[in-house]
Amino acid sequence: MGSEPAIGSAPATDDGSGRSTRGEMAARLGVAALRPRRLGNQLGVIAGIVILLAVTGALHSSFLSVPSLANIAQAAAFFGIMSLGTVFLLAMREMDLSVGSIYGLAIVVAGLLVEHHTNPWVAAIVGIVLAMVLGAVNGVIASVFQLPVLIVTLGTLTAYMGISAVLTGNTTISVNATGAFFTDLGGTYLRIPLLVYAFVVMAALLSVLFRRTRFGFAVRSAGANPRTAVLAGYRINRLRILVTALSGLTCGIAAMLTFAYFGAADPSQGNGYEIQVIAAAIIGGTSLAGGSGTVWGALLGALLISLISAALIQFGVSANASYVVTGTVIVAAVSLDALIRRARNRRRTPG
Amino acid sequence: MSVPDVTAAGGTTPAPAPVCVLRGITKSFGATRALDGVDLEIVPGRVHAILGENGAGKSTLMKILAGAEKPDSGHIELGGQPAAFGTVREANDAGIATVFQETLLFGTLDVIENMAGSSYPTSRGMVDRRRMERTAAPILRQIGLDVPLDRPVQELTLAQRQLVEIAKALLVRSRVLILDEPNSALQRQDSDRLFEVIRRLADDGVAVLYISHRLEEVFSLADTVTVLRNGKRIASVPVGESSIPEAIEMMLGSKPEALARSLPTPAAPGATVVSLTGVSTGRLVRGVDLTARAGEIVGLAGLDDAGPRQVMRLLFGQLKARSGQVEVLGRTGAPRSSAAAVRRGIAFVPSDRAEEGLALALPILDNVVQVHVGAFSKSLVVRRRQLRRLAARALADSGADPARMDAPVSELSGGNQQKVVFAKWRAVTPKLVLLEDPARGIDVGAKAEIFASIRELARQGCTALFFSTEFQEYALICDRVAVFRNGSVVAEMAAGEATEHTLLGLVNGQAG
Predict the structure, then answer these.
(1) pTM of the entire predicted model
(2) Which end of chain A, N or C, is less packed with Cβ atoms under 10 Å?
(3) Residue B377 belongs to domain spanning
(4) What is the pLDDT of residues B390-399, one digit of tens each?
């Protein structure tokens, strides 16, 4: 885990390949020096999670029960899956504010299709494809007009939400939630909801995509210095569209899993999610400066956010007040990122 | 090099008392000792040049005097009083003004606003622009900067921006003016004007501390030269008592074979690789005819906006031709984008390394394999071991240290950074390289290695187009030189004839 390493640095411990030869070679070449920083980025989140679990668990032992923990993880997965895609955007110095609206619209469209007797599996595929297209539209507009995705999605955030409202007349669509789609995808296995497994599997896949593929390398390269990337022959517009489509894809998958779980399509579902989605990626250690990021960190960040709300509820604090705490954690995470970067710059020797 | 009319001023009269004295200045960064007991005396009315290779301690010394760094030990006296500066502002207030290498101007603000900076005069709580303009006018006249005062500085040329920096420094009545490579990006005629300004300031009694890589300039401008090597002062001598070869010897510590041209017999010219016929882009490129063959190094000499840079950007898909015939690497038409250019086998080494050549935040390795992975690799996954091998070879070929490839590229000196840019392109074996001032701001040793790298590329059959702001470089590296003026090629000659004198005459509109 950790700040996504350069292709040359030692393989992270989570890659599962366990190829010691590479690790040894990397260590010989002095990569070991990079390790503390990489772990350091994650250490804060992990410490936060452990402390919250320990303190809350000590006072309310039921907090540590399997159903309670599964619940927290599931709450994290609802928005955390989208954070995984946001890591790619941040690494490219972009930000997608429309994630919650894409998620909501995908749920609405799938709900309407099922209501009109479409096979739910087909409806889900339509929902996922639609979410990818909506994401890509952000990227296309940003590329054609050479705007930051952030600015484009300030608009599409509202527009996509509006489409959901128009399509549903602002009422929840209840569907006949029977059949394998709802029972299997919305189901629970070994007392843990499928959503949580999906979250972990997607984190694993996207982490590999981010660190080990040409696509991931290109994203990081372009984020580190877009101008240099253009002059190195990168097709940066195409890359940006792919990344926004990927972000849309994560919204679509999260949306369909949510739909399967609730068996209903609430048009307001996803409103305001963008804050948590982006916050999870940043808390997880993805820098806003571009050029690096960590997919696993986003998963941890989402868990921490979810854990904070759950703990506060456990202590009888209102859900509204939990926004204050989450907000504070975001500010702390961003400040920490800035501090680390400053310390690193100071280490450099002027000539 | 000859810079007329500016050499005579100092030197002849007996030296006045120094305005600023540094004694035993020592500074370390981690394990690196950047400065080791350096003494320096700065005299009013004189231009004092500091020479040294990259990493010799020039910048650190300057930063200490400017208040940007604190020495570990040693002391500074200013006007006979002990002085210690915590910040650049404090040094400023004490009469030490600095023009740093990178211009520190606000691009969207205009000339007056930039000059005023934080000391904008106010009246009744509001900024007093009229007063500021009155203060600025004589200074701008003094340095000969004639532009509308309300023009945003981002619309000025590099030379004009540099003059705004100096004007800003002169606003506080400085006793000491520090200039860190103020002309590294300037064309010759702009440099000449800058030197006149510097000379005039010295004549007015300002002590000028001048840092530059361009030895010939230093020797025509400065009164005294101090050479640093590995953080130690090697010597301080009056310019008249030293020479360029001697200075190089002191800088390098041994006789340099650095920039002697190793004249390989120009290989039998290969097939034509670049052919431009009557190519125009509009204002800056007007009817250019140019050819280059495989294995040839062709110099494109000219002033900044005279065409060479624009021709390179055209060949790299960054500018469009409006008319004329372009043939590059066997295909008709210039590439439509850089992505297309790179895939056609064209490489581009831009003059602005930090902004266009490198991703400073990434490790050396990632920079070296950037083009390979982005444009050539067919594999879906990143094969680390293979990439490390590729990078090691490319770095070694370019004269860089392949063992350090995991360090951020920002930790390298300018010369080594440029080697990384070369390695990035050598990793994909280009057929045509466009070199836009590839030796800009790097030391003598690195320059020699960069030139060797270019030679080696040509020997392998790669064609190189070479542009430089330093006219003596053309004769060192090129086989043939095409001279540009006002967007067209006005002369072509073999390298042997491309002396600095001839080129300077031609680009400035005088017959060779």
Answers:
(1) 0.74
(2) C
(3) 358-429
(4) 999 999 998 8
